[in-house]
Specification:
Elements: H1 9-30, H2 37-62, H3 67-74, H4 82-89, E1 92-95, E2 108-115, E3 118-125, H5 131-137, H6 144-159, E4 164-170, H7 177-181, H8 184-197, E5 202-211, H9 212-216, E6 223-227, E7 231-233, H10 237-244, H11 251-258, H12 262-267, E8 273-275, H13 286-305, H14 309-321
Parallel strand pairs: 3-4, 4-5, 5-6, 5-7, 6-8
Antiparallel strand pairs: 1-2, 2-3
Helix pairs in contact: 1-2, 3-11, 4-13, 6-8, 10-11
């Protein structure tokens, strides 16, 4: 996969050089009679040097991303979506469709799965890969029936004593007239109170964009995790810039001001854990990302499922009660200035 983000230009140039050297080495290996042994060794050494340089530059760039650059990574079109994670993580999966009131919203997909031998209900946003799927999924922007379907699946998990895993990756809920007519705000609000009271463990993971009420509708849980390069925000940086400075061109400034990265939110105790991504982001190696996420989910569910339900609900209640409280720094010991 090519490096195609603006700040990855130097990496794209290196990748092109590597591709050219790989062709030269392959050609030399096919026709060894045309090259002296030391020439092939020199070409191979140069190829390894370029690969190491690419890895070092990638590590350097991704260790110092700005908030706006993280927004771009979170929105990358090749990042894994819910269906990708389900396929790569789950040993078995049976999809459940429909909200039993209006229809089936493909922007939220989920069902019953087997994850490391444990039965779970897993659901999340699906943006779509090609044009047809994106139109079918409304680019991941869920309608009311999507949130009602999600709540139906979570009630199913509660009834059969299965934990819930939600994967969040949405720019925002649907904003068209049909969504308003069918009660998008009510559907999200019902999910907020429903998830707060659900008598089964809930693990929420922001895998890309966690945008506005569209994200909140499936992100009330016992723990919220974020992938290293994901974002979680009340409004998109472009929308915030339009409101604050009346110009979406200031989106980068808004991203910095809003504190929307995983690192920012962990510092403010709004999430419990940052899930590391492969070098260059989840889009570079979806299989490795899925393996990391599977282990993380398994560990967190082991801990949550060990708690009595009443204790779980009380901890969930206290978690949200604590949001917004100032972080209290302990006073230094006597005699220490």
């Amino acid at each position: 996969m090519a490096y195609d983000l603006d700040f990855e230009k130097s990496l794209a140039d290196l990748e092109k050089q590597i591709a050219d050297h790989e062709k030269k080495v392959e050609g030399a290996q096919r026709r060894p009679d045309r090259h002296k042994p030391h020439e092939l060794a020199t070409m191979t050494a140069e190829l390894e040097r370029l690969r190491e340089k690419l890895m070092q530059q990638t590590r350097s760039i991704y260790s110092g991303l700005s908030p706006w650059e993280r927004v771009q990574v979170a929105r990358h079109k090749h990042r894994p979506y819910t269906r990708d994670y389900i396929k790569l993580m789950c040993e078995d999966f049976f999809e459940l469709r429909g909200d039993r009131r209006y229809g089936d919203d493909r922007a939220i997909q989920g069902g019953v799965a087997c994850l490391n031998g444990r039965a779970v209900v897993i659901l999340g946003h699906q943006k779509g890969r090609d044009t047809r799927e994106r139109m079918e999924c409304n680019f991941g922007m869920a309608h009311p029936e999507g949130y009602r379907k999600a709540m139906r699946l979570m009630r199913h998990a509660e009834r059969f004593h299965m934990p819930v895993v939600t994967l969040i990756d949405i720019a925002g809920a649907a904003i068209d007239l049909e969504a308003e007519e069918r009660g998008i705000s009510v559907a999200i609000a019902e999910n907020l109170i429903g998830m707060a009271q659900l008598r089964t463990p809930i693990l929420c993971i922001v895998t890309g964009e966690g945008g506005s009420g569209g994200a909140l509708g499936i992100s009330v849980g016992d723990r919220i995790l974020m992938l290293e390069h994901s974002i979680y925000t009340v409004a998109s940086p472009e929308a915030a810039a339009s409101i604050l400075w009346r110009d979406s061109a200031f989106a980068a400034n808004a991203a910095e001001t809003m504190k929307i990265t995983a690192q920012d939110l962990l510092e403010r105790r709004l999430i419990e854990e940052i899930v590391p991504e492969p070098l260059g982001g989840a889009q570079r190696d979806p299989m490795e990302m899925a393996a990391i996420l599977k282990d993380t989910i398994t560990r967190n569910l082991d801990e949550l499922c060990a708690l009595p339900v009443d204790e779980l609900l009380e901890a969930r209640y206290q978690r949200y009660r604590a949001i917004g409280e100032p972080v209290r720094v302990p006073a230094p010991p006597a005699g220490v200035s």
